[in-house]
Amino acid sequence: MTTSSHPSTTKPSDKGAAFAQFLADKHADIDDYLQATAPRVASTKISGVPVDDLDSFLYAPLQAFTAQGGKRTRPALCLLGALAVGGYEEGALDIAAAIEDFQSAALIHDDIADKSKLRRGEPCVYRTQGIGSAITIGDLALVNVIARAVRAAQLSDATKVQLIELLCQMEERTIEGQALDLGWARDGRWDISEDDYLYMASHKTAYYSAAIPLVAGALCTGKATDAQLRALNTFGMKTGLAFQLHDDVLNLVGNAATQGKDWRSDITEGKRTLCVVHALSHLNTKNRNELIELLSSTTSDQAQLAYAVKLMEQAGSIAYVQNYACTLVHEAQSVLDEAQLTTSARSILYSMADFFIERLG
Fold first, then answer.
1. What is the reported pTM?
2. Which DSSP helix (H) or strand (E) runs through 3?
3. With CB atoms 3.0 to 4.6 Å apart as the test, which of 28, 42, 78, 109 could cross-link to 96 if both were Cys?
């Protein structure tokens, strides 16, 4: 294993190019593995079993949703975690696929909660299959998260136990974050502090979007040290939170054409983002009440949405969140300085941190 301890902070930013290339290089292999190992009807040779119905109602819709894709960032990070500690990415494919299964379940269920219409350019699963069936399809994906770990032939039993515990933590923390996000909106809460938001966003996004995929991939190798696992976890938590903060900003001031229907949807949905939380604590009473009224109105009127953004800009909130995300990225890259990771993976991780806040969305 070739490792490096050069101060990565001396490297110029590549704007995420190396990480984008890594995602592109791994995309087809991950897609192929997901399709080849997708859950299927088990009782195909038992007489009287309604195989066609099970496939139609449950298995085929999940396979179709998974095939719609995305960047496959989370499973790619799992492979990168294995490479970072000198392992082979093939040994992490089952857990990489498990994490993508969790992503599928989360998106299918989130679309129901958010009453979304489209996902990845196609009608949401609940709109084509019905709410009850969509919940069941998402549940199948959740079951497959642990099933993949249990059935992974290349992993030792001891490693499987570690990974199952880690995957359960990922699911639990993500659900906790989602519960806070939905609960605050349901109860009309506007007393959310910055610490409250950071806790919610870390749980809802950072664990499953970065930290746990990296750590899980490293665990799959059976050779990661505690120091390596701590470094990958810390790096992942900081970059994962930066990713969410950048997403929040993009929703307000990013590329409207690229985002389409999601443009400024956080305002329509009354999301308690850090931009909102910061603005509510820095605006005068009149403007604060105006912003709360707009966030509570479910408005999609472009002029009203623009005024809400203007209020947040007036409070300095968008610049504050942008700076916060950049600080997290620099801190994450500094973590790599002392971590004993492979030189090639270190470079990709450094690029990944930039990638998470360079997206133009």
1. 0.93
2. strand 3-4
3. 78
